[in-house]
Each structure stands twice: as C-alpha cells, then as structure tokens.
Amino acid sequence: MIDSMALALAPQQPVTARRFRWSALWLPATYSYVSVLLAVAVGLTMVSASRESRIVLHASTNLHNLTKGHLGTLFSSAFLVGEGAATVFLIVPMLACLLALAERRFGAVKLVHTFFVGHVGATVLVALGLWVAVQSQLVPGSIAMVEDVGVSYGAMAVVGALVAVLPSHRRWVWAGTWLSFALGGVVLWHTFTNVGHFLALCLGLGIGRLTIRRQGGAERPLNLPEYVLLAGGSLFACLMLLG
Fold first, then answer.
1. Domain around 80
2. Do the domain assignments include residue 14?
3. Structure pTM?
4. What's the rounded mean pLDDT across residues 40-58?
5. What transmembrane ranges does the database entry give (predicted)?
6. What CA–CA distance (Å, rounded) separates 231 from 138?
7. Which terminus of the chain faces fewer neighbouring Cβ atoms within 10 Å, N or C?
C-alpha cells in the first residue's frame, strides 16, 4: 500500500515523442539497384544509337541468346530499363517506392530474392513457351532476336509479394485487382511480355502467401510513409501492365 502511494505521489516523467529512427532510411538494396539503373541509362545516352542497340541485344533474354547458352543475360537484362532516358527518369522513382516498401518490410535479402525469382522465373517460363511456339510455327522465328530487357518482371513479383504486408481483409482485393490487370494486358495486347507480367505476379503472390504463413497471422499496420510508398509502387505497376 505504501509503495502504491509512493508511486502515485512520485513526479510523472514527461511523455516524449518517439524518436525518428534513421535506420529506417537505410535501404541498401533499393539504393544500389536504382543507382545502377540510372547509371546504365545515363551511360547509354553517351553512345551512338547503333551501339546502344547492340548493347541491349547483347543483354537481352531473347531466344537467340538463351539457346546459345548466354545465361548471364538472365541477370544483365534486369539492369536495363529498355526505354528512353526521359522515361527512365520518370519511372525509376516509382520503382524505387515499390522496392523501398518491400525492403522496409522484408529486408534486403528477401527483396533481392523475390525480385530475381520473378525476373528469372518469368523469363524462363516465357522463353520455354516461345521456343515451343517457334518450333510449332505458331509465331515467326524472328521473335528469337527481339530486344527483351527490363525491370517489370521482377517488379511485378514484388507487387505480388506485398500482399503479405496488407491487412488480412484487403489481401484478396489486392491479389484479385492485380491479377485482373495482368490478365487484361494479356487479353488486350497478346504479347509475351504481358504473359511474363502475369507469370511474375503469380510467382510473387506465391512468395507472399508463404510469407503470411511464416508470420503466423501477425500483422503490422502500414504507416503513412509506407502508404505513400505503396501508392508510388502501385502507379509503377499500372504503367507496366497497361502502358
């Protein structure tokens, strides 16, 4: 009783605001990847158009390169956006929002893992489908030489994986919305890139589902800065799917 009275009479310590954690801004995977994308984009503006085309073709994951055993293109192709410099500087900040949110929630290692599972996995599946289509003469053989680089497959896998950071009552809405957009792109444009977007999204949703199971139902609500990052990343995904 005396102890309780003493605690009640003791001077109350002022409540201080939660200190900002600078560690929350340390996102090495996002910063490194975005920096490389911008550096490569700037570098390509300094060479002739013909040389730029040769560089992009050399890094492409097209059938010609893959069937020749140039498996390094599965990684090099992820460091070229494949658009003009103006477009690169427009979409890379939105891509950075997507990657930053994923890295904040999953960590750098899992972000890289998710991105490359989507990028490599969707690329290989698309290449197998194209190889069968070429062998069956369903598509012209010239498709084996097209330029095929970009960040969209990996990014769509990250979009799918983000289902794990949303409240449980919004997860089906998130998954259903993006699957509808991805399928809509396939139906409207009928390109192998649209098919790749759909496959990468499915791979990402699978990763997100595994993450939810490992979390054991635990949820940590998104804060305001994270919702801003989510909005920027969602805009990027819309541009990739419908652009």
1. 28-242
2. no
3. 0.90
4. 93
5. 25-49, 69-102, 114-134, 149-165, 172-189
6. 39
7. N
pLDDT value of position 2: 44
- Residue type, position 80, single letter: L
Query: Encoding tokens for residue 235?
Result: 């805009």
Spatial contact of 161 and 215, defined as CB atoms under 8 Å apart = no
Question: Which amino acid, 76?
Answer: S
| pLDDT score at 82 | 74
Which whole-number Å values give the CA distances from 86 to 12, 81, 82, 143, 198, in the listed order? 57, 11, 11, 27, 26
Rounded CA separation 149/56 (Å): 7
Residue 117 lies in a domain: yes
Helical H segments across the chain, by residue range: 2-9, 28-45, 49-59, 63-67, 73-76, 85-106, 108-135, 152-161, 168-189, 192-215, 224-242
Is residue 11 a part of any domain in this protein? no
Contact 111/159 with Cβ under 8 angstroms? no
Total count of residues recorded for the chain: 243
Both tokens assigned to 109: 């290692």
